[in-house]
Amino acid sequence: MEKVNLDDAFGSFDEHWSPRLAAELNGQAVKLAKLDGEFVWHQHDDADELFLVTSGQLRIEFREEENVVLDEGELLVVPRGVEHRPVADEEVEALLFEPSGTTNTGDTESELTKTDLERV
Amino acid sequence: MEKVNLDDAFGSFDEHWSPRLAAELNGQAVKLAKLDGEFVWHQHDDADELFLVTSGQLRIEFREEENVVLDEGELLVVPRGVEHRPVADEEVEALLFEPSGTTNTGDTESELTKTDLERV
Fold first, then answer.
1. Quick check: A75 and B4 CB within 8 A?
2. Which of A59, B5, B39, B98 is deepest in the core (most CB within 10 A)?
């Protein structure tokens, strides 16, 4: 049984918007991502998505409700079907919980779309 | 949509071995727990369980393999069916991720068994 040290795991990669797989359990994935700048607007039709910020400040923008600003140690669940756009004015490190196989850009195809995530 | 601040949430209760519900998504629960001392040996037959330590040092003991020591910022998935016992020599704060409805003491009934968790 192998533990994951978040500092070591985040230190093992530099790419933005390219989540790494930290763990899988019960059909769900724990992903680690470095974010910088504006992501694409998208939604996940069949998946709720949890963001937990471990470093920096992440703004999650919504079309139809108020944006939410997450500082270090804050989490938010974005329900399925809700269009959103993560924006990081400076680099953010975040942990995501969502069903395994959830694509980062949801229903939006983009050059930022990532599949086959590397394991940390 | 309501964010959860982990410091505020942990500050809102004192009881040990009495997890609070921080969020639910995709049939899974994010729970916050304060741990101190030895918990009961137990296993979850149908649920993998993730521990992420946010403060302190948690030792997860196993019957048939080496114990794992988790410091702040470290996570471990205990697979379903694996008997384990969390032990905190001093107070630990931890985030758990597991299917909604998973009981803290698994297959072991104990005075520490908790159901109907309060929301933070």
1. yes
2. B98
Q: What is the pTM of this model?
A: 0.95
Which residues of chain A make contact with B11, given a CB cutoff of 8 A? Answer: none
The two structure tokens encoding residue A108: 């939006």
Q: What is the mean pLDDT of each run of 10 residues along chain B (120 residues)?
A: 96 97 98 98 96 98 96 98 98 97 90 90
Contact B4, A74 (CB under 8 A): yes
* Helical residues (DSSP H) of A47-94, grouped into ranges: none
Q: Residue B31 corresponds to which tokens in the numbers above?
A: 């729970």
Question: Quick check: B77 and A24 CB within 8 A?
Answer: yes
C-alpha A14/C-alpha A66 separation (Å) is 31
Closest by alpha carbon to B46, among A116, A118, A26, A39? A26
**Which of helix, strand or coil describes residue A21?**
strand
pLDDT at A44 > cutoff 90: yes
Cβ neighbours of A23 in B, within 8 Å: 50, 75, 77
